[in-house]
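User: Okay, second chain of the day. Same drill as before: sequence in, structure tokens out.
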Amino acid sequence: MLKEKVMLKENERIDIIPGSDLKIIQNKEKFSYGTDAIFLSHFAKGKGTVMDLGTGTGIIPLRLYAKDKVDKIYGIEIQEEVAEVAKRSIELNKLDDKISIINMDLKELPMKFGKSTMDTITTNPPYMKSGGALVNPKENFAISRHEITCTLEDIIRVTEYLLKPLGKFYMVHRPDRLVDIIYLLRKYKIEPKYIRFIQPKISKKPNLILIEAVKTGKPDLKFYEPLIVYNEDGTYTDEIYKIYGRIGK
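Assistant: Same drill. Structure tokens below.
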């Protein structure tokens, strides 16, 4: 009955979003969210009007709404098919008045939205530089992982245009791009304020970073304790259970 009601397509399924009662439509053959989106949505503090750049299937807007009950969230996604899945997830949760999915190239956002109109911007961007790694032959995976349709600088430049003064920017990325990230944030007057490294285990090197930055903020960079995903025996750490809303399980 549920599948017929929401008109699921081939290979699609409905999952419960971790830490909430909301639902999301996913398709493992095409695109589904990863742990990096969960970590970012937990780390970010949604406030006022929020925009998520490269929203994919809408996991970050849905998690931010469930957690922070923000006024309005815009999810920007260039891939038409993926944006359509995100829209159906928003409709499934009856959140059309709170979350809007917009299918467009984020580089064109200054033509649609006014300058300094966003309180918070989040992004889980493509990690790989163009030409920096083998490209997945499936286009949707390639666009999500490689800087094909936009670069890191495109994202930060658009963020500077859209963010209000003292507005906050949250990003998840790879540690090997940290120098690029800080350089570009400074170039566009978005000051990095907090960094948190994510390590698979305490004995392993970080493989992700979370960054909070403030437009026109004063220089004052701080580091949180690293987030450790697994105990040495392979079980999740207590903090991961809390992030996923499974305390005590």
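The chain has eight helices and eleven strands.

User: Thanks, on to the next one.
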